[in-house]
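Query structure, 281 tokens:
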């Protein structure tokens, strides 16, 4: 998922389709992650950088009729999408969306039972500042929860290992070209440090692996198509010509070597969760 600050003018970013396909393909596992966070019925939750609102809705299911969830995002296009999905999920009574910059938001501090942020720290300029902001929004004793992936190890496929290593090296170079702070793209491995720098030492860190095995269902195929196209576009300039051609063969729809058509193909996705409690008092 690419590094893009939301454009207030406001188109959906190129990664939006891939992200939505990920939510759809791995919905049961992602819902399980949300079910595992400490959250009582009646809680007040903030979902920072809520995007298409999938996690907002899943959090809303957990807080029940007496709870409330506020989804915050800078992108009007994402909020429009999130609101449409919310209407069809009949959760209107307990969810609100608001368009704000998480870095300068005038939200009331010290009120939320849980402040959640998924797959977004890498797109914010100051990850520790964002977690500090999350902690300020939580009430004393409230939870701060970050769900993140490490882009270099988010998706593993059963492709030739030489291709995998070449792709990862090219991906790292692409991140380095694109940003003065490329570490933000693999921030998940740094979450304990980020939390400590934000004044929340000793966060609880958990990792989750989700897999699918060929023949892939339609949502998994859609996600893999989006993911592989995005990866190809990002890494191709940094691959040597032979590897570029080999990778293109694994991705092209008409190719006999197309990876998603391999009857023995596997995909494993890894995500990480960091949870901390804001000190009381
Ligand atoms: C990769 S998406 C993740 C969305 C969602 N949390 C999810 O996991 O599906 C990153 C989100 O951060 C939002 N975003 C980026 N910078 C922001 C800012 N300064 N304030 C609020 N939202 C921001 C983008 O609009 C986008 O919705």
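Result returned for the query:
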């Amino acid at each position: 998922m690419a590094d893009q600050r939301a454009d207030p003018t406001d188109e959906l970013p190129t990664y939006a389709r891939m992200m939505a396909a990920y939510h759809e393909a791995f919905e049961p596992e992602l819902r399980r992650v949300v079910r595992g966070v400490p959250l009582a019925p009646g809680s007040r939750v903030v979902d920072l950088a809520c995007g298409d609102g999938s996690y907002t809705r899943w959090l809303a299911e957990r807080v029940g009729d007496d709870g409330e969830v506020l989804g915050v995002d800078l992108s009007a296009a994402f909020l429009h999408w999130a609101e449409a999905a919310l209407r069809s999920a009949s959760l209107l009574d307990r969810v609100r969306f608001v368009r704000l910059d998480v870095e300068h938001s005038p939200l009331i501090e010290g009120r939320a039972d849980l402040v959640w942020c998924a797959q977004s720290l890498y797109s914010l300029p100051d990850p520790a500042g964002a977690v500090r902001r999350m902690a300020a929004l939580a009430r004393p004793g409230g939870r701060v929860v970050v769900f993140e992936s490490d882009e270099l190890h988010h998706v593993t496929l059963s492709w030739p290992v030489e291709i995998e290593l070449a792709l990862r090296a090219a991906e790292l170079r692409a991140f380095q070209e694109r940003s003065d702070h490329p570490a933000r793209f693999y921030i998940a491995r740094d979450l304990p440090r980020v939390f400590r720098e934000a004044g929340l030492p000793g966060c609880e860190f958990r990792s989750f692996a989700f897999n699918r095995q060929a023949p892939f269902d339609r949502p998994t195929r859609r996600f893999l198509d989006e993911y592989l196209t995005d990866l190809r576009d990002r890494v191709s300039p940094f691959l040597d010509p032979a590897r570029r051609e080999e990778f293109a063969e694994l991705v092209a729809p008409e190719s006999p070597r197309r990876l998603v058509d391999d009857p023995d193909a596997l995909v494993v996705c890894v995500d990480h969760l960091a949870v901390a409690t804001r000190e009381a008092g």
